[in-house]
Amino acid sequence: MYLFKVARVMRSYQFKKDMSQADSWDKDFNAQNNMLDDVFLYKNNDVIFWAKAQTVANMPGARHTDTIIPGTFYIKWDVPRRSFKGHIHGIVGAYDQDGQRINEDSIETIIGKNGAPVDWTRWIAFHSTLKNDPAPMGEVTRYAWSAGCFIVTPERQESLWVLGQKEGFKTGDLIPCELYEV
């Protein structure tokens, strides 16, 4: 049996020195306590994958309450990439801090949430810090920016994909996940 566990460090919620100030892309303003969280993939009782991650919505201009709350849900293996680079996976059956459920397509069905069409508000697991298209391949962001997704490094994103292929994961497989806070 496979199980993802995500350990969110409470300090991750403090992504700005002063949380009462407005968001900003300047320097490291919204990037305090970046990538403190841990993602583990268990096979039976053995850890077969580990990565540092950003799991709190810290992206300037994002709705920070789109952060997934602790609980159990699923990671949907190998979802369509759209403009993302590398292999990505969906978050399914989780709830955000507003109490809104992420459905089987990894979206919230609230039209216009964040001012975006419903099909843009997608929750992704293990997207990397690689910049989305049309940026050149290999170009990375200065920090791990999340709008509710779980972000890892490009190296760990690729390592997870290779491991999943070796373990026989198929597109659409639902792998249980537990997010807890430490």
Q: Key features?
A:
182 residues; L,D-transpeptidase catalytic domain-like; 8% helix; globular
Q: What secondary-structure arrangement, pairings included, does this model have?
A:
Layout: E1 2-8, E2 37-43, E3 46-53, E4 71-79, E5 88-92, E6 124-128, E7 150-152, H1 154-167, E8 174-181
Parallel strand pairs: 1-8, 6-7
Antiparallel strand pairs: 1-2, 2-3, 4-5, 4-8, 5-6
Strands ordered across the widest β-sheet = 3-2-1-8-4-5-6-7
> What is the name of the CATH architecture?
Beta Barrel
Low-confidence stretches: none
Largest sheet, if any? 8 strands, mixed
Helicity range of the residues?
under 10%
Number of strands: 8
Radius of gyration in whole Å, from Cα?
A: 15 Å
Q: What pattern of helices and strands is seen along the backbone?
A: EEEEEEEHE
CATH class placement: Mainly Beta
Annotated CATH topology:
L,D-transpeptidase catalytic domain-like
Number of domains: 1
Question: Could you say which structural class the secondary elements and strand pairing correspond to?
Answer: mainly beta
Q: Average pLDDT across residues?
A: 84
**Count, helices:** 1
What is the CATH homologous superfamily assignment? L,D-transpeptidase catalytic domain-like
What percent strand?
Answer: 25-35%
Approximate shape? globular
Determine the N-to-C terminus distance: 24 Å
